[in-house]
Amino acid sequence: VLNGAALPYSNGCLEGFNRKIKQIERTAFGYFNFINLLTRIRLEENQYKENILT
To answer: What residue segments make up the domains of the chain, in order of their start?
Structure first.
């Protein structure tokens, strides 16, 4: 706990990405195969990066 308060490092970005993946898994519960789920995750991540840059 003390190191978390003293050091400038954070895992917030990773936690946000994990939350996004879990949300996609909830909304895409009926996908037929795992490849479709991975494609959806990659598409969502690319869309998110484009929104930040513009």
So the answer is: 29-54
